[in-house]
Design a protein that fits this description.
mainly alpha, Arc Repressor Mutant, subunit A, 9 helices, elongated, cytoplasm
């Protein structure tokens, strides 16, 4: 049952524990199963957090803040989250924000500049980027001068 849960994708210890509980496995048995899987190297929250953070950052272009929230929901310890997010540098985060904004900007050619600013700001805020990065991206796209 626990191995089947790991087949679709890697899971955190917290996710696996929740999965086992929904299947009616008692808490102490679930803990023992997870301990054995950790010993076998099949469950590793640090590696899971690093892989999750890189995947979400590279493919979904979301900020470190959103990734941290997702990992917390999955039951990953804060130390593993911090370690995973340290591997995403600030330039890479800015580049992701810029790529998203540029892609959005290219789809809005006939709109007023104020609408460009508003829509790009909203997009980047939904993806979890902070005010500083958003302002920097808008300046680079030359949208704050209008």
């Amino acid at each position: 049952m626990a191995l089947n849960a790991l087949v679709t994708r890697a899971k955190s210890k917290g996710e696996l524990l929740a999965h086992l509980k929904t299947r009616g496995v008692e808490d102490d048995v679930a803990q023992a199963i997870i301990f054995r899987l950790q010993e076998a190297g099949l469950v590793n929250d640090e590696e899971f957090a690093k892989a999750w953070a890189q995947s979400r950052h590279n493919h979904k272009k979301i900020s470190k803040r959103i990734i941290a929230g997702e990992l917390r929901q999955k039951g990953v310890m804060q130390s593993a989250i911090d370690e995973a997010l340290d591997e995403i540098d600030d330039d890479s985060e800015y580049r992701s924000a810029f790529d998203l904004a540029f892609k959005k900007y290219n789809t809005m050619s006939r709109l007023e500049p104020e609408v460009h600013v508003r829509r790009i700001q909203s997009l980047l805020q939904r993806k979890g980027f902070g005010f500083g990065i958003i302002t920097q991206v808008l300046k680079e796209l030359d949208l704050l001068n209008h």
